[in-house]
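Schema walkthrough. Field components (list of strings):
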Amino acid sequence: MKLSVIGVGYLGAVHAATMASVGHDVVAVDSDEGRVAALASGTAPFVEPGFDGLLRQTLDSGRLHFTADYRDVAEAGLHFIAVGTPQRPDSHAADLTHVYAAVGSLLPHIRPGAVVAGKSTVPVGTASDLEGRVVRAGGVLAWNPEFLREGFAVRDTLKPDRIVYGLSADAGRAGVALARLDECYAPMLSSCPRLIMDFATAELIKVAANAFLATKISFINAVSQVCDAAGADVTLLAEAIGLDERIGRRFLRAGVGFGGGCLPKDIRAFRDRAADLGVGEALDFLADVDAVNDSQRTRAVRTVRDLLGGLAGRRIAVLGAAFKPDSDDVRTSPGLLIAAELEAGGASVAVTDPAAGPALEAHGGHAGEFVAGVQDAVVGADAVLLATEWEEYRRLDPAQLAGLVRRRVVFDGRNALDPARWKAAGWTYRGVGRR
Ligand code: UDX
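Field assembly_structure (string):
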């Protein structure tokens, strides 16, 4: 099948390469010519396990092409919109500029009967607003949300939990989109459920899923505050409540909170849209979810300050700038936000990360001084703060680091270290809600 993917960020680039790997001919378009050139030469512009190999393999197969020219997509029968919907700078709403620009650039080039499938996370109502434009251009609109997680993006795209089709209220158009999407996803459909619904439900599923995940994390983080006050251990508590199948063990890791390009902005956009629809109060609890998440970072800073008897003049090593391991994504990074709070308190901060160095350089203006390795970051440190649970940080040797720091104080912001091991090496250990 001939497909196009508009937008080659974390979502679009992986979707394009994965679709090429299952046998489709894919043209991926982006207005960022530098990004297009990098991808076309086989260089992944971000860190994602398994993506580099997949990119090279699909480029070599001749089934994947990158371009900045929308005219190159004209032959495709199915176009995926995979551009970003960040938070607007002036409000909590999603910024749809890229979605409307992508659709506007695409429509003059589609062939009659082509299907345009939105994958971007959008406020409910966007698809029905876009449908008229797509129909006037001779196309058919569908909404096909993406649930991939960074760090597992290739796996999640090849083996999704579920595939959702939001289809038009017009039966003829719905039939065209259904057949086209089924043809595209045939390799995946044998092993995962396919759910068919209206546009609004499909749009809401994505934000509802992310709001639920964020709520689960903030729930355990709120409980971790009670654990700290009561001298209980949130890791044991989470394990025990998670064994109840109705609750489940995943997304119950207490720590310095959720970050990234999805959860924080999606809960705000969901609430904002609900308010537009006159039911804002129904999602007021998401403001608390957000506030608990913020307070986890502030709590980490306060704990370090108390352990050191103040922050002014202290040197602190922050391990982890990516918002999660196996990614170089520094959007809403808990490590960087904590680094900024530490600096505001007068500390000097060295930030390190195994993968996010280049992304930080491109980002510019971040808190802390970036240092390439853990050893250099911790030299002379008064405290070490773990912000991202990279495997190499879990395996750090506390006895070896003890010889490099000025004070053996560690704050384990992901409850990822073995307290007994660190204490045995002479460290003062603090975790999150952990005795
Ligand atoms: C999320 C959704 O999981 C995915 O389905 C959606 O398509 C996009 O948004 P992602 O942003 O890649 O994916 O990261 P996710 O794995 O959800 O983690 C988000 C944040 O929550 C990370 O900062 C992570 O460290 C944090 N987290 C996760 C916790 O603090 N505790 C947990 O138990 C789990």
